[in-house]
Amino acid sequence: MPLVVLCGRPGSGKSRRAAELREALGGPERPAHVVAEAEGGRAALRAEVERRLSRRDVVIVDAGNELRSVRYELYCAARQAGTARCLLLCAGGPGGPDEPPFEAPDPRNRWDRPLFTVHGEEPLPLAAIRAALFESAPPPPHRATRTQPLQSSGFLHQLDRVTQEVLAAVMAAQRSGAQPGEVVCVPGVAEGLVLNRPVSMAELSRLRRQFISYTKMQPSDENLPQLASMFLQYLSRSIQ
Asked: I need a surface site. Which of 75, 105, 119, 228 has the fewest CB within 10 A?
């Protein structure tokens, strides 16, 4: 059954909203589960979401999901499970110099829609959320089960090339003596990657395969300019 992904800055009320959603959407015939970010980080969160997704239960993700790459992974998980989903942005939060960067959802991205936003104490738009989850058509079949469009071959070639270039830049920086905490720059990408520890080629290759596997679920030319940035964000969150 459907997936509701919450996102927002620390202190914006995500846990309170998750509890409200569980009460409103769950019931004897349709259990609702809240999956919260805990020890194990992003990979553990994604694994728990995938385990909970089914044709009967509602899954509510109570986590910051501050990076678009995280939301994209959850979008792919819902698509693979063949279930509807929506995104709830809890606006506000006190903010602070030590909080992680937050990339606001953009409804022009398919993984950020349908998007609902709540501010402060205003009520949840439950009617619209129910319509998105229970009345919308299920997502189309996974592209692996049908003929790939011609544009996807170019997309996959670009995906392979870009991720290889990022790995090459990270390994070159390490060979040049980059120390933990230094920013690794990738040509053509505004943001860099801060490594907290040395990373082997084997580990980078494994993360690259995981990223490609998620991204191939929805090849789209509109994602091409963001591929390197999304992969860097994926590496940043996966390498602890």
From this structure: 119
